[in-house]
Design brief:
Layout lengths: L1 H10 L12 H4 L1 H7 L5 H24 L2 H14 L4 H10 L1 H7 L7 H15 L3 H15 L13
Helix pairs in contact: 1-4, 1-9, 3-4, 4-5, 4-8, 4-9, 5-6, 5-7, 8-9
Amino acid sequence: MPAFEDLLHEAFRRVPNPAPFLAPTTLAAYSELQQAPARDLSFRFERVRLATAMSILQLLSDLGDNDDSRKVVEALNRALQARSIAEIDNVMHKEAKAFERLYTNLYVNDEGELLLNLFERTLDADSQALMDDVLREATALAATLDFERDEDDYE
């Protein structure tokens, strides 16, 4: 799906070294989901979910220069390297504190609220159709975000 790859590329275009986040296996996650045999569907879906969530939080990180969201992006990227759902769960369990800190003292503007809503919807999505909706909305939103900071916005 082009929206999946578009979202990944848009989310990581401001990162000095995007290669670890745009690995060929990550970019191929959606097409692997589409081609996966039934026994592999859950794992392939989780990889799409992780990459989508990682992209949305990278946008949030760039929008608000938020270190906590960067740490969650890194945790999600580590989980993407897993070879099974059990390994994903293990990584996520180890990184639980990063997720807890994400919402502590987090101030976001309207765009940030939209991104957090999309992040939550990504985590809640339990079908490819719901994930496709999130991907389309996140890709459209990413194209409209203003990453240029105006000092007046923070006074």
